[in-house]
Design brief:
alpha/beta; TIM Barrel; nine-stranded mixed beta sheet; two-stranded antiparallel sheet; 6 helices; 11 strands; 29% helix; globular; binds iron/sulfur cluster
Length: 219
């Protein structure tokens, strides 16, 4: 495996961080995974964002180096997140996905749905739509292209119900998670969200990384 990300290759990705951890939320919750956090997001940016360090430019890394690095970590699941990772689809992410899948890894994306999910992607797309400034910032066609949807919520449960109904999503594609970058916030919200999920037949997920480590980065 190359020692440095600065080798010359024809395609690069703008990367904030690469690390191993356990997927803390959603349908892959609890699975050990490599994480690739790509840099850059789509405006309007969310004031509550817990990954603001991924908003700006990161480090330019060749796709081949990133693929080797991820494979070398030894996980069979890789979570590609951001920022908004799909912003870099055509500029190199498509090649990274191809390389990782050919190596037998499962690729899971975390996307906001503010950009169109590429139809040709073979990864598992988890879409987390954002409601701000009085509307959902979401590309309509993504309701066919995302594999599932997750909502981090505090109290706007009616808004989530409306979105699910308007988009025609079946309940088994929906995950509900408690807002809060501290474990105590999550625990306070969870019983109410549990009942909300039972009522609507939605999936419930805690956010294990913030439940145990609050807003610490790299977990
Ligand atoms: S879409 Fe996600 S990464 Fe981007 S600003 Fe909002 S919460 Fe942060």
């Amino acid at each position: 495996m190359p020692e440095s990300p600065r080798d010359s290759h024809y395609m690069s990705l703008d990367v904030t961080e690469i690390f191993t951890s356990i997927q803390g939320e959603g349908p892959f919750m609890g699975r050990p995974a490599a994480f690739v956090r790509l840099s850059g997001c789509v405006k309007p940016l969310c004031p509550w964002c817990d990954t603001k360090h991924a908003w700006g430019p990161g480090e330019s890394m060749p796709v081949t180096w990133v693929a080797d690095k991820v494979c070398g970590l030894g996980n069979d699941l890789v979570v590609i997140t951001g920022g908004e990772p799909l912003l870099q689809w055509a500029s190199g992410l498509n090649h990274l996905e191809d390389r990782l899948i050919k190596k037998g890894l499962t690729v899971q994306y975390e996307t906001s749905g503010k950009v169109l999910i590429p139809a040709e992607s073979k990864g598992f797309k988890v879409c987390s739509p954002k409601y701000l400034d009085g509307r959902w910032h979401y590309v309509q066609d993504n309701n066919q292209r995302a594999d599932c949807f997750k909502f981090v919520v505090r109290e706007d449960l009616a808004g989530v119900e409306r979105f699910v109904k308007d988009q025609g999503l079946s309940p088994n594609r929906v995950w509900i998670m408690p807002l809060g970058d501290h474990g105590t916030d999550q625990l306070a919200l969870s019983p109410g969200l549990w009942e909300f999920c039972v009522k609507n037949r939605f999936n419930f997920s805690p956010r294990l990384h913030t439940l145990f480590f609050n807003n610490q980065q790299g977990v």
